[in-house]
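Thread: "does anyone have the structure for this chain?"

Original post by V.I.:
We have the sequence but no experimental structure in hand. Need at least a predicted one for the grant figures.
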Amino acid sequence: MPGVRLILALHNHQPVGNFDGVFAASYRESYLPFLDVMADYPTIPFVLHISGPLLEWLVENQPDYVARVRAMAETGRVEILGGGFFEPILTMIPHRDRVGQIREYSGYIAEHLGVHPRGCWIAERVWEQHLVAALVEAGIEYTVLDDFHFQRTGVPESAMRGYFLTEEEGRLLKVFPISERLRYQIPFQEPHATYEYLREIANQQPGSVLVFADDGEKFGSWPETHQTVYTNGWLRHFCDMIVANQDWLEPTTFARAVDSTLPVGKVYLPDSSYREMTEWVLPSDRIVEYQAAIQQTAHEPVAHRLRPFIRAGGSWRNFKAKYPESDEMYARMIGLSDRLDALSKSDQADPDYLGIARDQLYRAQCNCAYWHGAFGGLYLPHLRNAIYRLLIGADDALDESEGLNGPRVAIEAGDFNLDARQEVRLENDRLIAFIRPAHGGHLYELDVRKPAINILATLDRRPEAYHAAIAAACSTRSDAYDGPPSILTKVVLKQEGLDHLLVYDRHPRKALVDHFLPLDATLDDLKTCREVERGDFVSGTYLSKLQRGPDSVALVMERPGLADGHPIRLRKTVTVEADSGTLDVLYVLEELPVGVPLHFAVEINLAAMAGHADDRYYSDSQGRRLGLLDSRVDLDAADGVSLTDEWLDLAVGLRWSQESALWCFPIETVSQSEGGFEGVYQSSAVVPRWVVKADESGRWEVRIRWTLEPASRSKATAVKNRERLMVDG
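Reply from O.Q.:
Generated one for you, tokens below.
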């Protein structure tokens, strides 16, 4: 019997919607060189989990790599783990989708890698005990979770030297604990540190099974790791250490360990994920408090004994509470899953379109855009946009499965964002709009069907626990830090002036946000979120009424409130017509104080487009460019503005019936990525504003018309407008 069996498992993943260049760079810097090195050590088996989005890319772009992995898998050199096809957080999606994703990916792996996986990877190791039922139903025999999960049940570290049995409703699953110590040693410390640890275990508990399992990107893609792991030879030195000690150190796989050893016991694990995530999911201010408490007590004699019993934070699900934008995507996804399930039980739905919808739905369940921790995730617009593109595609496919095509219009009330309040969905054959009357009457999602873009996929600016480190680094103008060379602790500023972007929103960055401001308010007041609001309409509750006609539908929202201390009534009506790419919004202000000027503004935050590129720009109603989408625009007089993204072939035109002043400015966040801290353009705030002075009727109104069309068509229209103006002149 060996002194120690060591399982080396890598999780290689790229999210749905990531840039092709990132896939290619990670392949070049990490996935390929790792395989090249391991090919020189035939006596060292290892384990690979390749996520579905990445494996699809490899099949399409690197077939030779896939063939090499297949050959190694078929001879037992490498064990392949399965999992959810598109790397969903399994606790986030319905049971039917869990089973469906795992089964489909197992089939895909069998097709392309020649083996049927016995074990599976749990995305982000987010665990709830009921997952046992789905895993076993999908044909999974074992999985791997962090030792942190086991610690929270009271299992001592000395007992985590093999795999455990767990159970749900009579179904049995084997679970291996991952060593956090090994996660932090490999590949950040010299191989000798791992040797000493393993040798100690071999002497104390011969026959132990220890698991290292972590991101494969640590081996080349993370900053400075390619130099360390390959150029400086860390991986070869590590493999040499294993080969030199195979008289007591046996590299193995999960399958071999299961087939040759007995479980060390039975365990029922609490809802959890890896330790760091249980901290990230906390509210930002509580993260700071928690980390301070840990640091203050770190050197207390009893601290190391107490820490395994401390529940750091909450479950992954609370990311949906921490970030409403995540919850909006989640609620949209759940609604589509329910609709797909209902239609799948109908004999009237077209099965081919149901298959398309299911594929789009599964892809939209990729976890990365739904949360934020050490890296970008939710903060990356291209990942959020990819999720919405797939959700919109699934919605369209479900429409097709029901025979819903051609000109049409519909309106429906329901709890679409799962907040126990009624939202309203207006749609036609070109657009889908979601409005929440109970929260400011905001338009919070507007989907343009043909390019499959939600132009309101915005993100609020909010405090994050790591912002204090950014402010401190900016003030000292230093990236230096003390501690181990871990990407999770290093402070690197990728650009100057990040501290100036640490601004936090007082209201959601959605559309149809209704402001009453001081007469002397400035663009900077709104951009930097100074407390200048003089009304109670921004987040107030609107009473609503649905109107249906044969060719149009409308939502009428009305609210009495205060504007600069004066009681007034505001009504806004959103109208959608069949076979139209326009959205019509009528604002009516009533019971205004006669002769008293009020500064009224409508804020519209538009996203899904790039901020700093020559083919993404503002223009006026005559087609004259006003600047890129991340620039500031401050006009005294305007009758409209267009935002154009030629790469997406999308133009969003806004026109209003009464001339206004206009502010436009970028919404930028600061977040952490693998390479350091950086500013990220999220959306453009477009704010037409009027000084309203009512006559004897006490009434004032303005109509704002949205036109959503291909950029090429919008450009042609602008040219015609300029030519007409020249002729008229």
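V.I.: this helps a lot. Confidence is low (pLDDT under 50) at residues 478-487, 724-729.
O.Q.: and The domain at 4-272 is CATH 3.20.110.20 (7-stranded beta/alpha barrel).
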